[in-house]
Amino acid sequence: MRPELVKLFEAARVPRYTSYPTAPHFSARIGPAEHAAWLAAVPEDRPISLYLHVPFCRRLCWYCGCTTAIAPDTARPEAYAELLSAEIELVAAHLPGRVPVAHLHWGGGTPSSVGPRAFLRLVERLRRRFRIEPAAEHAIELDPRFLEPPTIEALVEAGVNRASLGVQSFDPEVQRAINRIQPADRTLAAIDVLRRAGISRINVDLLYGLPKQTVASCRATVAELLPAAPDRVAIFGYAHLPSLKKHQRLIDERQLPGAVERVAQFEAMAEALEAAGYVPIGLDHFARPEDPMARAAAEGRLRRNFQGYTTDPAETLVGLGASAISSFREGYVQNLHELAPWRAAVREGRLPTARGLALSARDRLEREAIERMMCDGAVDLAAVGARHGVAPQACITNPTRLAELERLGIVERDGTVLRVPAECRPLLRIAATIFDRYLEASPARHAVAV
Predict the structure, then answer these.
(1) In the predicted structure, residue 67 carries a pLDDT above the cut 80
(2) I need a labelling partner for 76 at 20 to 30 A (CA). Which of 57, 332, 392, 422 fits?
């Protein structure tokens, strides 16, 4: 991408658009009552998705932007799992019946930190309260450094069929700078062990923009990863937000690359993956051509939710655990962030809802336009407008910004279709802002745009 474009937007802060409107705009005006009503309105015969958040890790990674707590043993995670089981009961009691589940995702933190027995008990509780479909995708995020045989056995018994492994970088110097020592051979061995156990679908997460990271080290990381042939690779930009994530203050800001270097790192990894046969998807994902995500992208069925890019078509996503977010036809709700109030609510038999947002008709229109831009790199204003009963031009929230992006060549217009050219892919989030009327209210809460 042209350096002058990178420099133009290096100070811009925009959402990652895993939801719209984004979480900073949720408020306490939406609480447990709305949460209960929206659960009760879920269609009983339509598959939903489940997300379970386990906010524990054994060690602190200084770059982490997730809601986590450090637990060097299983005592705290096991106690958390007991309350998570109780929350499953609470939520299921508000649903109209034993609804079907087509996607089940465990995130964190490190979800396996609850231990094999507690994990299996949670899965059994889910099976009793929901109808997990035979072909459901059952995915979990794992730390390759703490993947022991009993854990793998429990994952297989639970029916897990996709594992997402955090790698970030194989460069030892970068690993020391972010407090995550993870030799490449250990990660590759974990992938091999998972596949031999029957968990064949493997995702890997990489980061760019880390302290001491270079274009050369990014290329080297991809080169070391490729022999393992993961099904999907995500390349995320490190979001340095020390005002929100205090542990990020442990990172020396002087060692962080600038915007031009960040984009060069992303492009180096993207080129290496595409040369190896991976298909570029959306902003930052790559998949083998036979992977369901590559097929969904080719057919215009790719979606984006709180877990990022997904093949999941469900309208309802039920989030469980501290800080988890649920998405309903009517809007969003988020659980209490802090563990103590979340525990108290669940123990008292209350939905642990902290805040949320009810969607307006305009929100739904803008959400669809943003999702299509983020997933397809293009938006057909006529098609979106027809689905929402407005003229094509009325879909555009910020025509001044659109005109500027067209002038810069970041967005191209072909009739009623707006498209981002391939070389401007790192600026997809910038292009999506032409539909975002909430952006100016909270730019400081978002990550840098490039």
Answers:
(1) no
(2) 332
